[in-house]
Amino acid sequence: MVTKDMNILEAVQKHPQIVQVFQKYGLGCVGCMVASGESLGDGIASHGLDADALVEEMNKLIEETK
Fold first, then answer.
1. What is the mean pLDDT of residues 30-46?
2. Where would I find the DUF1858 domain in this sequence (predicted)?
3. Which of 30, 40, 48, 59 counts the most CB atoms within 10 A of its CB?
């Protein structure tokens, strides 16, 4: 499971499948230099997207790919 408070890079390293969600919404957060110091919630919100919805989608994907 991931949360909005998790660091972007740590979340991706632990659950690489969530990169699909970033790509789906055109978020380049994974390759961004800021990602190493930014939370999922802050990174997603900075692009004007609903962080709660995307984190929920990421967690659903994690469960489906176990």
1. 84
2. 3-55
3. 40
